[in-house]
Structure formats: structure tokens, C-alpha cells
Amino acid sequence: FTGKSSQVDADHVVPLSYAFQHQGASWSKELKQQFANDPENIIIVSAKYNRQKSDSGPSEWMPPLQSYRCEYLSRFDAVMRKYGLVHTSGELRVLKKMHAACKLPAPFAA
Asked: How far is it, in rounded angstroms, from Cα 35 to Cα 79?
């Protein structure tokens, strides 16, 4: 990396607000803190793309690098499973197509 440190962010693969809206609202303070600091859920990304993604899940936003999308989707799934988070039915319809294209198992639905 040859840019400035202000050009990169630590990003939550599954955004905190996304988790809150997908059954994380009832978590204990300790579990919320564990989730926020879980290294499996944190990646270093371009600040520009982190701002674009905001609190979106993969049915609304995917990384611009096509070759990374399936890996990103797989990592998002792993975090969702780990914390028992569930997608809405609308999200699942979109995600099932994405998973099929990536040859990944069906998205997590508790």
C-alpha cells in the first residue's frame, strides 16, 4: 500500500447495524462487544468503498472487484452463521442466486 492511512478503514464484513436489524438487537452487551471486535468480521478496506457499503448486506452491495465477490459472500455467511443472524425473505431471494453463481451452499436462514 502506498497511499495515506486515511484512505483505508477497518470494516465490519457484517456491519454492526445490519447485525442489530437481523436479530442482534437482543444480544447482551458482552456479545455485541465480541461481535464488534471479532477478527473474522473485520477486514482492511478502501475508505471509499467502506463508505459506499455503509450498513448494507450483500443483497444491496458487493465489492467492486468481481474476483473477490464470492470470497466476500462466503465470509459474510460465516459471520452470519457464527452469530445466528438471519436474512429477510427478500434478501434470501437475491442471495440464493448469488450463492448459486458462486457455487456456495445456500445462505444461512435460521
From this structure: 9
